[in-house]
Amino acid sequence: MLRTILHLDLDTFFVSCERLLDSRLNNKPVIVGGTGDRGVVSAASYETRAYGVHSGMPMKMAREICPDAIYIRGNAGTYTKFSKQVTEILQSHVPVLEKSSVDEFYADLTGMDRFFGCYKFASELRTKIIKDSGLPISFGLSINKTVSKVATNEAKPNNQIKIDAGFEKAFLAPLSVKKIPMVGEKTFRTLCNMGIKTVNTVQQMPLEMMQVVFGKNGQIIWQRAQGIDHSPLTQYHERKSISSERTYGQDTIDLTMLKTTLIAMAENLAFQLRRGGKLTSCITVKIRYSDFQTYSKQLKIPYTSADHHLIPKVIELFERLYERRMLIRLVGVRYSALTAGTYQINLFDDEKKTVNLYRAMDDIRIRFGDRSITRAATIGKGAKTIGNFTNPFNGEPPIVLAHRHQ
Length: 406
Description:
Dna Ligase, domain 1, 5-stranded mixed β-sheet, globular, 3 domains, 15 strands, single chain, 14 helices, DNA polymerase, domain 1, Alpha-Beta Plaits
């Protein structure tokens, strides 16, 4: 049976949320992101696109090429609320939902045609989302995730497209090769240097040539250019979590050691989020006293995967929780209410160099081990046995990052 995959994308999501809160922004050039010169554009309205503004651009450059735009420092809490509202609507109407980011979703409607038309159903669902949330949303409908996602981008702004089965290659052929998911700037430049600018050219190339140039990724790009994508949806579960605990060999009241442990846990769990492409919106801290009484506190936060946003909240929860002043046997940290996403939502108050720093640190951890680079605040006996880490430096100490946010 051919699959029926729906892809939905909230148009210029952060900008649309701001316009919903302030109608004076409608039809005006709006840019959301870090408002300092070192900030980064997180979202730009369609009115700014003609000037060349795009997400990920340094804010200083955006101000130079589009000085008349309205610049807004983003509010992650607001966007999280609207994202959850749309998620709840989708969860109540589709059988299988994948939330690929705060503003992007996939739904598997396979088999629903026997009861009613999938395109009609998707159209009614889109209308309901627009009516209930007030947010514009576009969708693409086809037999797989790749074609549906490309179709959504072609449908924007605030529109919808269905690609009938068997017409995937014809739909993709005239488009820029850059529109194939996973073709980034570097791959696009390489393809251009090979004289390849449209999907049609990739469709006509031998698979072996793409594999020689791009390795395994070459095969994936070639298959997607043909309209082939068998990747399944990852069912969305709001209550997924990751956690870490430590039971001390000897009960302690050493606050320095306790906080060192918690910071190390919070830092490593944040890395696990980023490595898995996840964001959290709920933090829980647990302590168990020497009499085995266990207590916990949790805090709802805007979606994030950044250490310097999460660590202060973990310490804050611990300080609110630790009231009995008794010896502590165990401490733990849990991040829950996870969703797929990237660091983008944190760009409102962080500089691009902060994002690049995280990427560089994570690359080192992936290559050499979780504890190969860490904050100075996590060095000490409180962090000796956080997780099952091995030191790849054969006895040499890990790289230490002295972080002023501590």
